[in-house]
Design goal:
single chain; 458 residues; alpha/beta; UDP-n-acetylglucosamine1-carboxyvinyl-transferase, Chain; 2 domains; 4-stranded mixed sheet; 12 helices; globular; disordered C terminus; binds shikimate-3-phosphate; binds phosphoenolpyruvate; 3-phosphoshikimate 1-carboxyvinyltransferase activity; transferase
Length: 458
């Protein structure tokens, strides 16, 4: 079996731009979107979802929901209906579940499928095939699942068969990971008795919130200094419940940092989720001196959302503690870009998990910054960026390695660097933020295919 060939790479270029201005609507949160579809599948009745992220990653999860017997139907922009089969009711999928580039979709669905007496094969693109899956499979095997086949090192393509009866477990995650936690809890839904996940550092809690929203019993207790102990009572009847997906703070991060580093910018990003387990970037940028105002904070669909007003200004380097990583794990590439424009050094600690994302992000960020003329080094698991105090040369090309966040981060850099910046491939941006380029252009950012003369890499 070979991974589906990747569409032809499409380079993009960003050029130095005038002040960014206006309001923007960021697409729905990717984490909640995957979960909305999977909870819809496991519930009895019809779940209506608004604001669903229609990025490629989430559309793969919608395909998987259908393959497992549910209905996932698009009614309008971001508006979906999901008809569930109920816990225990999954059907045997007819073919391979191909998750493309999506770690979250594949891993959460593995937890769902492997707790049912069905056999499911998971596959993905060249990036997903490199990512570790044993971290998910190990606890699922303890719950009774069996690995029928896997690629070397416990990678995709991987076939897993669920037991007739799933066993509840107490599981301490080896690394802080909402994907591991969620896979175990989702499997625990079909286990009699209590399934407990212990994490040393609290990771995003959307699964716990949605479990409650759908009627399951979940107890969350503090564990150690930064951790949590989450206990789920298995085999509840999940009742379909409407889900309004708020805007994704991990996507908002890109126009937000762009507005901080392009002089004179003043923008508003509407309806962004500000769950404290997701906003480590905002806290860090504020420590760096960023002007980010939360306007009109309100509760929507079980999450706090706010409109973010962001104004350009000078930034100073900071030391980012390792324990903050889970609350901003996907934001380091764009934080590193902000750090390149700050004064002084920024040290980002404890980034080992960045090595196993869509690319080795620690290396990809360091290489891209070096190509842009930025002083950068890796020391163990730390990334250290020497800021140019508002001045970055740019003019290079960042290699994106099938990684959407690397592509968007370096396009943001190009908007404020003297000579702009190119990225070798922008196609993966569609996995999480399909409207990124038009949205940035609407705000005044000069991003295009980079074919005309002048500026980045021309
Ligand atoms: O649970 C989730 O929705 C996610 C968890 C994080 O991964 P890890 O669980 O591997 O840290 C994050 O990087 C990913 O983009 C989304
Ligand atoms: C790590 C990411 O996603 P996933 O693990 O779902 O591929 C991300 O979106 O940055």
């Amino acid at each position: 079996m070979s991974a589906a060939p990747h569409a032809a790479p499409a380079p993009l270029a960003a050029r130095p731009s005038g002040p960014l201005a206006g309001r923007a609507r960021i697409p729905g949160d990717k984490s909640i979107s995957h979960r909305a579809l999977l909870f819809g599948l496991l519930a009895i009745g019809e779940t209506s979802v608004t604001g669903l992220l229609e990025g490629e990653d989430v559309l793969r999860t919608a395909d998987a929901v259908r393959a497992l017997g549910g209905v996932a139907e698009r009614l309008g922009e971001g508006e979906w209906r999901v008809v569930g089969v109920g816990i225990g009711g999954l059907q045997q999928p007819a073919g391979v579940l191909d998750f493309g580039n999506a770690g979250t979709g594949s891993r959460l669905t593995m937890g769902v499928a492997a707790s049912h007496p069905i056999t499911a094969t998971f596959d993905g693109d060249a990036s997903l095939r490199k990512r570790p899956m044993r971290r998910i499979v190990d606890p699922l095997v303890r719950m009774g699942a069996e690995v029928v086949s896997e690629a070397e090192g416990g990678r995709l393509p991987l076939t897993i068969r669920g037991p007739r009866e799933t066993a509840p477990i107490v599981y301490e995650t080896p690394v802080p990971s909402a994907q591991i936690k969620s896979a175990v809890l989702l499997a625990g839904l079909n286990a009699p008795g209590k399934t407990t996940v212990i994490e040393q550092e609290a990771s995003r809690d959307h699964t716990e919130r949605l479990l409650r929203h759908f009627g399951a019993e979940v107890v969350v207790e503090p564990h150690g200094q930064h951790g949590r102990r989450i206990t789920l009572t298995g085999q509840p009847e999940l009742r379909a419940a409407p889900i309004a997906v708020p805007a994704d703070p991990s996507s908002a991060a890109f126009p937000l940092v762009a507005a901080l580093i392009v002089p004179g910018s003043d923008i508003v990003l509407d309806n962004v989720m500000v769950n404290p387990l997701r906003t480590g970037l905002f806290a860090t940028l504020r420590e760096m001196g960023a002007d980010i105002e939360e306007l009109n904070a309100r509760e929507e669909g079980g999450e706090t959302v706010a409109d973010l007003r962001v104004r350009a200004g000078t930034l100073r380097g900071v030391d980012v503690p390792a324990e903050r990583a889970p609350s901003m794990i996907d934001e380091y590439p764009v934080l590193a870009v902000a750090a390149a424009f700050a004064s002084g050094e920024t040290r980002m600690r404890g980034l080992h998990e960045l090595r196993v994302k869509e690319s080795d992000r620690l290396q990809a960020v360091a290489d891209g910054l070096a190509a842009a003329g930025v002083g950068v080094r890796i020391e163990g698991d730390d990334l250290i960026v020497t800021g140019g105090n508002g001045e970055v040369r740019g003019g290079g090309t960042a290699a994106t390695h099938l990684d959407h966040r690397i592509a968007m981060a370096f396009l943001v850099l190009g908007l404020a660097a003297r000579a702009g910046m190119r990225v070798d491939d922008g196609t993966m941006i569609a996995t999480s933020f399909p409207t990124f380029v038009p949205l940035m252009r609407e705000l005044g950012g000069d991003i295009d295919a980079g074919l005309q003369g002048g500026g980045a890499g021309a």
